[in-house]
Amino acid sequence: MANRFWNRQINRLERAGNDDFLLILTGGAAAYATHELHHLLRRLRIESMRLRELRRTIFRLGVCIPAMLFAACAAGLLGWHPLVYGTLAALAFLAVVLISATVYVRGRFSCHDRSKRLRCIIQQELERRRKDVGAL
Asked: Does residue 61 surpass a pLDDT of 70?
């Protein structure tokens, strides 16, 4: 039991140590090379676009829930019980998909809610380096 606890703690620390964005937020960008910072800015932009697209998809799926509820009610009023059961089963499946997508987005893109701050930290460090090179 104790080994499992320590293994989970070690795995959590390794995941945090491998997350460049979290390292920049906690320790700053000075430890990274200039080309790595440019690469991280590009990666942040690409992942932000991907996150925006995933959020749009999640929103669209969420909008389907009231439509499916309306369809189930209408089918129930018309006496089409197999359609009601099918719609309710699809609604349950859609709820599971939405919950799992939300958990995935929160886990995978945990630092992207602070993307403005990340971008600002990286750009300030790049600007500082640009001034240092210009002063020489």
From this structure: yes
Directed axis angle between helix 34-78 and helix 81-108, to 10°? 170
The Cα–Cα gap between 123 and 130 comes to 10
Query: How far are the Cα atoms of 42, 130, 131 from residue 134, in angstroms, in the given order?
Result: 24, 6, 5
pLDDT of residue 53: 94
CA 89 vs CA 12, 82, 84: distances in Å: 36, 11, 9
| 6 or 88, greater pLDDT | 88
Determine the Cα–Cα distance for residues 27 and 32; give it in Å rounded to an integer: 11
Distance CA 11, CA 7 (A): 6
What are the backbone dihedrals phi and psi of residue 7, each rounded to the nearest 5 degrees, phi first?
A: -65, -40
